[in-house]
């Protein structure tokens, strides 16, 4: 976990340094050329820089240990600050880009000057963004391979929003640079500022889409998303294999932070167990689960009869079918 946190921090720091340098270059180029697309890209990089600052806060605050007021730790702070980062991408980048695009199309005709400055800055920005993007891609591929997953599936199930945010914002940055280049070139070739405006609007739409995807991801994690389905199935199989367990009646999991999962299992134990034996069995099974599944941060095992109609109704309402594992 510490190694992964260090990897995430390095990925964010690389992205922060690249975006800060790019924002300054784009702003200068936008002021020199008068290009709406270049100014939109400058706002894009400013939004990305603010995003990285939020992500650094997320990494720092989410690593605080549990205390009396927060007995399950501060893991979800990472999702809160990452949600703010998504809002920042929309408000600081998308809205400004859309405004610049509409103004360029429907406002007064803008003259373009020294377009070569814009081309040079876009080329340098593409190289810098590429370095940050390759860093994020490397981390995604490495961690996906460790879990025997495809990168796309890994990103969908990932509970570390910092890596996902950097990957998506850097991908959007590279596409945005190509859009800005197209708008700048078409304005240069045709003399019509409408192309510059169209590029700016497309950049705004792109940023809004990225902000929506990241916002939805962090919303699900803040509300309380289930753990990785593969982990849930493995935990259920491990519980069902215990000789003292007749059936897994209910299984609840919730992601409480990056690589942190809360588990509550309702089990129907064999009737022959005494109360003392039941206590020792619960301790033993809890220890086995902790040894086999490093992400299980808190484990609660509750003995219940499988025939309880009220509990069965709740399980059916939640999953649509009972999760009872028949005895072997």
Automatic annotation (TrEMBL):
It holds the Pfam family Cation_efflux. The keyword Transmembrane helix applies. GO terms for molecular function: monoatomic cation transmembrane transporter activity. Residues 12-218 form the Cation efflux protein transmembrane domain. It is found in: Membrane. It comes from the Bacteria. Keywords: Membrane, Transmembrane, Transmembrane helix, Transport. Coiled coil: none annotated. Its main location: membrane. It is a multi-pass membrane protein. One of its GO terms (cellular component) is membrane. NCBIfam families: CDF. This is Cation transporter. It comes from Actinophytocola xanthii.
